[in-house]
Structure formats: C-alpha cells, structure tokens
Amino acid sequence: MLEPGVLLQILLWGLILGSVYMLLATGLTLIFGVMKVINFAHGELMMSGAFLTFLLWHALGLNPYLGIFLSMAAVGLVGVVIERAGFRPLRGTAKINEIFFSIALILILQNGLARIFVPTFREYAQIRTPYATAIIDLGLVNLRYDFAILLALTWVIMLGLYLFLFRTGFGRELRGTSQNRVASMLMGIDVRRIDMLSFGIGAGLAALAGSLYGIINPFSPYAGTMPAIKAFAVIILGGLGSVRGAVVGGLLYGIVESFATFFLGGSWRDAVAFVLLIVVLLVRPQGIFREGA
Amino acid sequence: MGSLFRRIRQNLGIALFMFGLPALLLAVMQELFIVQILTFVFIFAIYAQSWNLAAHSGQHSLGHATFLGLGGYASILLSTRAGLPPAMAMFVGPLLPALVGLVIGGLCLRLREWYLGMVTFGSTAIVQVLIVEQFGGLTNRWDGLDAPRLLPPGLSVETAALGNYLLSLALMVATYLVAAAIMKSKVGLAFSTIHDNEVAAHACGVSVKRYRLLAMTLSGYLAGLAGALNGHTLTRHISPGVFGIEDSVWPLLYSIAGGLRTPEGPILGTFIVRVVWEWALRRLGGFESLIIIGLMLALIVTFFPRGVYPIVARAASGLGARVVPGLR
User: Fold this and answer.
1) Phi and psi (nearest 5°) for A91?
2) Total domains in the fold of chain B
3) Partner-chain contact B122 A97, CB within 8 Å
4) Contacts of A281 in chain B (CB under 8 A)
5) What is the mean pLDDT of each run of 10 residues along chain B (328 residues)?
6) Which of A251, B179, B263, B278 would you call most buried, defined as having the most Cβ atoms within 10 angstroms of its Cβ?
7) Element at B238 (helix H, strand E)
8) Which of B118, B281, B327 should one mutate to test binding to chain A, selecting the residue with the greatest count of A CBs within 10 A?
9) Considering the entire predicted model, what is its pTM?
10) Is residue B323 part of a domain?
C-alpha cells in the first residue's frame, strides 16, 4: 500500500497543476460566455505570458513574482487587440471561421515566440525564483516555497476576479452580456467593449497560468497547446460559460491527472483528458454546472 | 457518371489549371526537388480532399492526423509483417482508419462545431498513446517504423522520384473524381443539407446519422490512403510524431485556402499554400514561414472565406470555361 505522504504529495502536485488549468479554463469560459467563441490559441497566450515573465527575470533581473503582474497586463493588452482586430470582424459569419481564425493565431503566436526563443534558449527554459530551493516541512509532505506562493497568488487573483464580477458595475455588465447579449445591448450596455474586456481578462489569466507553469516546469513555446486543450475539456466538463464550473473542474482535473500520471504512467497523461472529455460529452453534454457566469 | 462528366466539362478551366499545370511543370523541370514538392502537393491534396469531404457534411475535424497516421502504420505493418506488396497494402491498410473514422463519427454523432473539434482533436492524442503504449511491440514505440518502397528497388533516384510523382498524381486525380462524383450526387446533397441545417435535413427525410457516418468513414479511408502513400514514397518512415497538431491543421488550411466544400478547392489550396510555404522557408526561415502561413490563414478567413476558388473560377470562365459556382 502507498504511504499517505506520497498520496498527499501527488494531491499537492495535482492542486498546483489544477491551478494552471483553473486559470486557463476561467479565462476561456469568460470569453466563451460573453463572445460565444472558444479561443483555441489560449495556450499560446499562456506561453506568451510565461515567456514575458521569463524575459523580465532573465534580462532585467526582475523578481518573477513582480514580473507576473507586468506580463499579465501586457498579454491582457494583446488579448484586447486580438479581439478588436481579429474576432470582431468575424462576428456574425459562420461559427467555423472563428475556429479557423484561432488556429491561425496559434501558428502566428507560437512561431513568433519560437522565433525569439529558440535561437537563444534552445529547447527549454525555466523561470527560477529566488526561493527555488526553499522548502516548508509540513510533516507528511514537503511544500516548496514557490508552490505556497503560487497557490496564494492564484487564489488572491481569483478572489479579485470574483469581486470584480460580482461587486462592480463592469462585472455586472459582463455577466449580463454573458447571460443575454441582445437584452444587455437593449439595456444600454456597450457589449463590444465587454467583448474586449472579457478577452483582455482571459488573456491576462492565461499569462498568469503560463508564468505559474514556467515556474514549476521547464517550458517551450510549444508547451501551451496541451494545457489549453485540457482547459477546453475542463470547461466542457464544467459547463460552457460557467466560472464556477471552470474553477471546480480545473482543480479536479489537475488532481485526476496527477493521480493518473502516477498510476498509469506518463504517456497516458494526455489521453486521460480526452477519454474524460468524450465520456462527459456523451453522457452529460451540458456539463456539470449548467449555463451562466 | 453522366453528371460527373458534365461537371468536369463545366469546370474545364479549373481542371486544366489543376492537371495541366503540374504536367507542364513536369515537362520543363530539371530539378529533383520540384518533383518532390509536387509529389508532396499531390499526396496532401488527397489528404485535404478527405478532410474537405467530412467538412462537406458539417463535420469539421480537428484531428485528421489520426487517420493519416493510422493509414501509414497499417499499410507499413501489412507490408512488413504480413508480406503484402506495398502497392496492395497501401489500399488495404486505410481500411483501419476508415473503421476508426466510423467509430469516431459514431461518438460524435450528436456533436458539432467546437465539440466535434475537441473530440476529434482529442482522439489523435488517445490514438497516439495507444500506438506507443498498447501496440508498442508492433509499432516500435517512439522510434517508429521504416517503410518499404512503393516502387521496386534498383531504380535510379530520378526514375523512382518520377514514378512516385506520376503515381501520386494519378491517385490525386482519382480522389478528385471520387470526391466530385460524391459532391455532385444525391449523397453530396444530403451531406450539404446536413452541413447547413441538421434539423431541416432530418425533417426532409435525410438519414443524418447514416450520412454523417458515411462521410467520416470515407474521409478516414482517403486520409489513410494519403498517409500510406506518404509513408511508402516521401518519408519512407513513420513515427508517432505524425499524430501531432500540425498534421491536423494542414488539411484544413489547404481546404480553406483553396475553397471549402468544392472538390477543386483542396487541390488548389494545397498547391498555393505549399508554394508560398516553400518560398517563405527558403527566403525567410522556418519560423517566419509558419508565421506567414498563419497570417495567410487569418486574412483568408477574414476577407476571402470562400478561398481562391471563386477567383480561379472567374479567371477560368474568362478563358471560356463554364463554371459552376462553388458552395457557400
């Protein structure tokens, strides 16, 4: 039988991994709720965030935990531009065009990143924080200092997002647009501004997810695709457009994946996501939590 | 068959462009690498055609690499383990991806758009793991398999390349004829109705389920054929890397660039995109060429969602051909 310490360690790792998925999924679900678009290039926005944080640390010596905020703001801005210049002109045309456009975005962002990244840093890079070797001893398990900070940071930002969504006017407008676009328009909400806002927030959260990923894993410009695909699985699991579903689903999925990797072996890690996804789509296509942000 | 010939006569200009141009290039070219690029174009035009056929029935797959890869693996294994000559294995092997297409199509019956995209995408990752882990003994895990030559050994490099070129051209033309015949037929009409409105199709008495499965199975077979052909001629090797994202994106890109839901589109698109890509690769480098392809896709989707087909069709009708307008 396994020791409880090992199980706890796997659970902890799953929680960290789950935070990455949760952040990605929350961004995706916000964007989907408002715009009814799934941004397939979310993983590439995520890696842009990781890369920016990495560059700020590597070139300027900035503490990664400060760099994350700059990187979130910058990638958020990129998201706003992408919505304004890319997705908005496609609104109202066939749904499939938006899928195609986001695939074009994958090619552009991924290779744009690789163009700068690969000649200098070769295959992989990792963000090293000043606390990389520090460990908190919790008795049964050892908690890396970084993990503790990352978990705290993630939850502070998620709390901020919650307050934004449920306690501010903008947040109310965003939720309204997500529930009923036409009615919101009739109530005088500038839904196109809300589109840009939601895409900006989504991209910013992706940048945070990326930086988190880059601190706990070596990363490359191509590393974002798989996590993003899993985040799609998560939001379908949790119910499209549901933030609650994205949070619960993301964390749950991280933990499931962590255990699956341990018990089935590394090459099954990615396949588990899709088996889960297919089962959910067949059994409960509306997701665990239905509708509404 | 009569209506098929009519379609070809009506699309004479485009047919000339598609088959005449490569033949012309063949006559003037001296360089081996042009033969190889064109062989690649033909093989991937088959692949794009298969994707386009599924898309015609409203099933925009994001995981066609599943079929491409399985076709390659099945054909190579049949020729190395079962002793079938590659020329025969190439046609028997794709029955496996056809079967897998039937299964995936069955799983996806209730799904469309994003959902269908996700499941087809995911199936590629699952198949990759199965190939590496479950059938590792057969497939040599991550190292992959070497493929026997399609043509008998002992030919000079030039003759072999030319042989592969002509064979691929012939198969591409055959695939084109099949796709054109299907799209023109009652089956094609059913596909098209399902694409536009599944409920209406149902109400009209179209068996949505049967036609969607048919489209996926057929598409799986053709994609597998392209994979087998590619394995036995160009790459001569297959590895689990084939189940990547890129190989799933290419056919969609080719079809959109050329013109969705026309049998000519995938061929035009493969040719154009490949030429642009080769040019950019030589001029600018690997990353830049893919950025350019991405920009091209974004611009086409935004400004020419019907691809170059209407433009070519207009040019062809200027040359005297009577052209049927492509579908939306």
Assistant:
1) -60, 135
2) 1
3) no
4) 111, 115, 118-119
5) 58 63 65 82 93 90 92 92 86 92 87 80 83 82 83 79 85 89 88 87 87 93 94 88 84 88 88 88 86 88 83 72 53
6) B263
7) strand B237-238
8) B118
9) 0.83
10) no
